[in-house]
Amino acid sequence: MVSAVVLAAGKGTRMKSDIPKVLHKLGSKALIEHVLEKVVPFSDEIIVVVGYKGELVEEFLKEKYPEIKTVLQKIQAGTAHAVKCAFPLISQEKVLILPGDMPFIKKESIKKLLDVLERENVAGALLAAEIDDPQGYGRVIEHNGYAVRIVEESDATNEERSIKTVNTGVYCFRKPILAKALEGIKPDNKKGEYYLTDAIKILYDLGYKVKTVKVSWREGMGVNDRRQLSEAYKRKCYDKALKLMESGVTVLCPEYTFVEDTVSVGKDTVIYPFVFIEGDTKIGSCCEIKPFSVIRDSLIDDNVIINEHCVIERAVIEKEVSVGPFARIRPDTRLKRRSRVGNFVEVKKSVIGENSKANHLAYIGDAKVGKNVNIGAGTITCNYDGVKKHETVIEDEVFIGSDTQLVAPVKVGRGALIGAGSTVTRDVPEDSLVITRAPMKILEGRGIKNYKKRKYGIED
Questions:
Q1: Which of 187, 202, 220 delimits the end of a domain?
Q2: If exposure means fewest CB atoms within 10 Å of the residue's CB, which of 181, 242, 333, 442 is most exposed?
């Protein structure tokens, strides 16, 4: 039984921000989300210690993770002080402690840490990493695989600074033993703070063992400033691109392709550079995702072509559909098989039926479009009356001419033909022709020469 304590009280001074550090986004998720999603599977309860602008973190957690408890660290007096603030809420035997700004931590490492506590006769365990340039990090002093103490960079001797094993800030302790260690921690350091790292030496002096579990440095990497945030994002996306390629996806330029961990892509799909694919997105096989497109939380079936400069969000796109270039597919839209949405077309909360197409300069909102429909250039559904949104229904086999306005609520019956330039304000029966344009007049001799002479007295 595990209680997890996530440390999220710091201001993150180096971020130079009015936003708490843990709420800064790494891709589409806040830093703390990347941590919590790894912790949740192993924890019977989670306690987040908040501090700087804690109300913002609490509000965020309430919406995303309502079951999580929070506790306020009124004064940021160090990591041990933060854990003390959380201690009255801890109810489980094992206590997992980790920072809220460590997005590369793996579930496997957390499990390994907890397994050590389960199987071995130790008081605790910590994650440590080997790094060629350990400057700025606390060094782990070891003996026979057990941690003797951790010394912060500012308090380390020159000899200790040469050690390349560094502390990641992730620990697991037995609760009663952690309580003993917390009682003995004093602010005897240059910053005058209560360091949780001091618990290691206290426990060693009391005869307890704390096991060192090694992980890669990338996994132990925290985010402390904007540059590190940028590096973390690039690394995450690059790692994902490599995984996709290993699974049979073509990523033409992995250094400039930005796909989040949560995305799945089928084999033989080709992803071009400068594509962003985020959130809960699933892309099928044999698709093409062309440059400068953004896809979020969407389901895209096999053999779909997403052309350049498209934005797709919370939509479903069925097999053999073509989108774009320069199309926007907004939430709650479904593009059915072999439909086409082309240049500068926006679709919102609509269904576009099989083999139907809107190839140019159209807006389709709150609409149900049947099969084999042609929607001409410049067509719009006038779905909003200033108070409410209304539905447009276009049945199968309809042909809508260019520059048509469909004033909702309205229904166009099967096989109807709407003449170009029409404004449709009432339901259209099946197999009907609608023309609402004004009659055309021709006034001979009233061309541009006549206009210049009458208006300005100019003779050619």
A1: 220
A2: 442
The backbone region for 192, taken as left when phi is positive above 0, alpha when psi lies in -120 to 50, beta otherwise, is left
What is the pTM assigned to this prediction?
A: 0.87
Q: 81, 309, 360, 390: which one is catalytic?
A: 360
Q: Identify the domain containing residue 167 by its residue range.
A: 2-220
Domain termination site, one of 199, 220, 241: 220
Q: What is the DSSP letter of 440?
A: P
**Alpha-carbon distance 86 to 104, whole Å?**
24
**pLDDT digit string (tens) for 110-141?**
999 999 998 998 999 999 998 888 887 889 99
On whether both 185 and 239 belong to a single domain, the answer is no
* Helix/strand/coil (H/E/C) assignment for every residue in 14-40: HHCCCCCHHHCEECCEEHHHHHHHHHH
CA distance 23 to 29: 8
DSSP codes, 117-146: HHHSS-SEEEEEEE-S--TTSPEEEEETTE
- Residue-wise pLDDT for 315-348, tens only, equals 999 999 999 999 999 999 999 999 999 999 999 9
Give the Cα separation of 260 and 280 in Å (integer): 9
Confidence (pLDDT) at 154: 78
Told to judge if 360 belongs to the known catalytic residues of this protein, a careful annotator would answer: yes
Residue 235 has pLDDT above 90, yes or no: yes
CA distances from 115 to 44, 103, 190, 315, 416 (A): 16, 21, 35, 42, 69
| 228: helix, strand or coil | helix
Both tokens of residue 308?
């350049």
